């Protein structure tokens, strides 16, 4: 039962940053009073984080309450919204996804490329069990998904019959930055999560102020924008255009996950020692996905003002070049009734081809990770539009890294 009629909202995962989410919720004046139920597997840490978040709510004068729900069913029971921030294997697993690709000359990331494939392999079986519990305990809840890789995790939840949308701030903050330089000119957007493209519906490329802006400010080279007829998000460049990324000085620095793990431990110590007090360490990791996407979407899901932004939803024919069951990322409107996305203008030929290739690889990956089928996974790897892909023994080693069991990843690590 919820406290005093507050609307129950379950938050699964998120680590110490669930406390930051509570602060962003406290700052949103249009939210009704909610009971935030935090759930995670580490009991001691969860209770510390929840006690701190509850103290912050009180310190900020918010009407909401926060509590730790040690049992998943208890967290979900009757929830009107479920926020998914789970990372299977924690930051040690993220470190694996970010580091092993470098052995094969590839960029590492937990959401896209071969690192994203490893994450999907680990995550989908666990998420399948979570979906069971949501369907049993909160079948009518809006599920706000932020679990990487966002496309395949959202697809699983949708195929289990849940009211789900994936939420990502990156297209919004990218477009806002470019429009701050260029003005509010019209552009279209479509793609997959973190692999989206902006283009002008009338075919204008570098004469369009928004598409020219990232070139003029050194974010993208003119030759790439001309080749695509569009401006891509930075993940596409870093993972699938390595030569371009090198020219731009966008090589990924190693050790990000380990740095975040250290920061999380600092935060938990702060929360334990000074529950409810402001934690200046939080400023060292900005969380624009909470401010720009998640909390506005939560407000909309609870009956407030609709949210307009990038939404990850089942394609269903919106992009003819992608399989209908694959999750694509489009701009649309989200409210208490769900998602509405308008027709997408024709894509430039190169963008259409690339979306088709990326979506085809993701379709392979989804079925491979669902079934833990290594042959399908090999098909997903072959379909991925990598600039170079290992062959022979190196290819077999790469597949071993993608399929590496979680216990092996965590061996010798402090479980975070």
Describe the overall structure:
With about 425 residues, the protein is of the alpha/beta class. The protein has a domain at about 5-165 and about 255-300: Alpha-Beta Complex (LDH C-terminal domain-like). The chain is about 50% helix and about 15% strand. It contains 17 helices and twelve strands. Strands 1, 2, 3, 4, 5, 6, 7, 8, 9, 10, 11 and 12 form a twelve-stranded mixed sheet that branches. A hairpin with a 2-residue loop joins strand 11 (about 325-335) and strand 12. Helix 4 (about 90-100) packs antiparallel against helix 12 (about 255-275), helix 5 crosses helix 14 and helix 14 packs antiparallel against helix 15 (about 375-385). About 50% of the residues are buried. The mean pLDDT is about 95.
Short structural summary:
With 416 residues, this protein is an alpha/beta fold. It has 17 helices and twelve strands.
Query: What top-tier CATH class of the domain at 3-167 and 257-301 fits best?
Result: Alpha Beta
Structural class: alpha/beta
Rg? 21 Å
**CATH architect. name of the domain at 3-167 and 257-301:** Alpha-Beta Complex
Fill in the CATH topology of the domain at 3-167 and 257-301: LDH C-terminal domain-like
Offer a few descriptive terms.
416 residues, LDH C-terminal domain-like, twelve-stranded mixed β-sheet, 17 helices
